[in-house]
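Entry for iron/sulfur cluster complex. Fields follow.
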Amino acid sequence: MSGDVITVEELATVEHRLRTAMGRAFRAETASRERDPHHLGLSSVGTCTRRAAYALAKTPVSDRPPVREARQANLGTWEHAGLLPRLSEQLPGSRVESKVRLRAAGLELVGSIDLDDLDGVVDLKTVGEHRLAAVRRLWRPFYHNRVQVSSYALARLQMGRPVRWVAYLYMDRASGAEEVVVEPFTNALALEVIDRVTLLRALSADPDRAPRDERGPGLSLSCDECPWLKRCWGPDAEPSVVGPQAVSTDPEIIAALADYDDARARASQAEADKKWALARLNRAAYGTYGPYRYGRKRDIEETDRAAAEQRLVDLGEPVPKKKKRGAVDIKVVSRVPQPGEGKP
Ligand code: SF4
C-alpha cells in the first residue's frame, strides 16, 4: 500500500486496461490455434458437409474471418490441457493426445485421441449447461461427436491396436458436472465412419452442391467463422448478419411459410404442455426427483410499466413512445397438402 490516494479516474483506467487485456488474451489464444482451412482432420469429419467438401477439394477461400475471442472454445481448450494429463494419471496405461491416421476412401486423415486408454478411446467434450442437459435427456452422443470419436477408434484399429469401446466424457465447462456415455465400438460404427469419408470424398468433386448442414450467417457460429461463407451464401454474406438466407421463388417461400407454421404449432403445443406439467407440480416441494431437480430462481424486481405510465400521466408528463414493427402475421388460409399429395 502506498501513501497515494488512487482516484476514481485511475481506477477506471485500470479497469479498462484489464478488460482490454482480457479480450486480447483470448484473441491471442484463438490466433495461436488457427489452422490451414484446407486441412481436414479427424476432428472435422462430422462437421458441416459442404465445408468439409470445400476443404478436401482445396477450394480457394472466399473469406478471412476476423480472429474472435471465442471464450467458450478457448476455456474448453484450457480445460482439456489441464484435466486430461491428470485424468490419464488415474488410468494407468492410458496416453494423452495420441496421434492416429485413418485410411478410408483413398484419403488419409490424421487426428489425436484425447485419452487413448488400454482397450478404448475417450474424448472429452466441454459443453454448456443446456448441451449437458440434452445429453442427459437423450443419453447418446451427438451425431458429429459420434463420427469424430468413431473415426479415432477406427484409425487406432487400423494401426493394429484393437478398440472395444468408445467413451464420450461430456463436461459442463462452468460447473465441472459430467456425464459419461460409453458404447461398444462395433462394425456398424466403423462402417459409419467409412461411409462418411466416402461421401465427403465424392462431394468434394463438386463441393458447391454438397448439402449445407448449417443455417447461415447470424444463425450459425460455424457459418460466421467459415472461410467459405461468401462462396456458400453469396457475395453479400457477412459474418453474424442474417440476410442471404432469403428465398425468392414461390415454392421456396411456401416451404419457409410451412416451416414457420409447423414450428409455431409445436411451440404452442409445448407451451400448453408446460402449463399442464406445472399445474401438476403446484403442490410438490422443491427438491430432486429421479433425474430432475425442481426449484425456482430468485425473485427479481421488474418495472411495473402500467404503474410507471400512470405516474407520468398523473404528473402531466407525456408518456414516451416509440414505433414498433408489427409482428409477423402468417395464417393458414386453405387446405395444406399432406405428404404424398404432391407439391402445392
Ligand atoms: S458457410 Fe456454413 S453452411 Fe456454408 S460451408 Fe460454411 S459452415 Fe457450411
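NOTE: The pocket of iron/sulfur cluster is lined by residues 48, 50-51, 212, 214, 220, 222-223, 226, 228-229, 232-233 (CB under 6 Å).
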